[in-house]
Each structure stands twice: as C-alpha cells, then as structure tokens.
Design goal:
The protein has about 130 residues and is mainly alpha-helical. It has a single domain (about 15-125), classed as Alpha Horseshoe (Leucine-rich Repeat Variant). Helix content is about 45%, strand content about 5%. It is built from five helices and two strands. Strands 1-2 form a two-stranded antiparallel ribbon.
C-alpha cells in the first residue's frame, strides 16, 4: 500500500506532451511549442490535424499557423474529406522542405518520419 501511496508501483507512465493520451496535456504541450517557437513540433502538429477531437485540431492548426505563418487551407471544422485534402497539402509542404530543410529544429528528425492523420494512414516524410 505504501508503494501505491507514493506513486511507486512499477507502472510505466503514459507518454506526455504532444503524445499524451490526455487531451488537456496535449493542448498544454501545443501551447508550450508555440511559446518556445519549437519547430521540432511541426510533424506532430501536422499529425494532430487528423485528430477526432475538434479542439485538438483547432489548437494544432493555430500552432502551425503561428510557427509557419500559414494554414494551407486547413479548417478544423470542415468535413473530413476536406480536412484530409488539407492534411495532404501539409504533408507535401513538409516533404518539400517547408521549414527550409527536411530536418526539423535541432533534433535531426524529419527524414523518414511518418506524418499524417492521427490513427490513419500516414504519409512518409522524405
């Protein structure tokens, strides 16, 4: 019992930040990415455009707009087919080096990283 009371149970904590299964934590992470001007968040933000949660989609597109200066026609409230078209435009933008290079921030991520709708078929960033 004491181990559970102190939070030491040997269980792995769920991923946090932009990968958190908790919507409120994902939204906080989006806010941090914008505040910190974190370009390395762009691939995950593009993926978040495919979320089932309209609030997550809205936060993701506003963050992308803040970080990149564009929306590429994405509307978080549009019909799914229109959102998918706009997500494809974001993936193409990223694949063509939309951030200036095919790497993101200082992490070196980007080449070969999957970017696409959350839970759906992902296009590969080349």
């Amino acid at each position: 019992m004491a181990a559970l009371a102190t939070g030491v149970c040997g269980c792995a904590a769920p991923p946090g930040g932009l990968d958190s299964p908790v919507p409120a934590e994902r939204l906080r992470a989006v806010g941090r990415a914008v505040k910190d001007r974190d370009q390395s968040a762009v691939p995950k933000l593009i993926t978040m455009l495919g979320s089932d949660d309209p609030v997550v989609r809205l936060a993701a597109i506003r963050a992308l707009e803040s970080l990149t200066g564009q929306t590429l026609g994405y509307d978080h409230a549009a019909a799914e087919a229109r959102r998918e078209e706009a997500i494809a435009a974001w993936v193409e933008w990223y694949n063509r080096g939309g951030l200036g290079e095919n790497t993101v921030g200082t992490t070196g991520k980007g080449v070969g990283e999957a970017v696409g709708p959350a839970g759906g078929n992902a296009d590969t960033v080349r």
